[in-house]
Design brief:
mainly alpha
């Protein structure tokens, strides 16, 4: 169980090409947008299409 996971050569090559593109502020905005969209979905199902106007 305590054995380290062996990385393949391909995995090592691919990990060199990865870069972070989202910061903390971007993740925060994504979470806020997800919460708001769930709340709006409930209102649309309850009140109909006039929720958006």
């Amino acid at each position: 169980m305590d054995q380290p996971i062996a990385s393949t050569r391909l995995a090592h090559e691919q990990s060199q090409h990865l870069q972070k593109s989202l910061g903390r502020f971007d993740i925060l905005l994504l979470v806020v947008a997800a919460v708001i969209s769930v709340e709006v979905l409930g209102q649309v199902s309850g009140f109909g299409g006039e929720t958006f106007t």
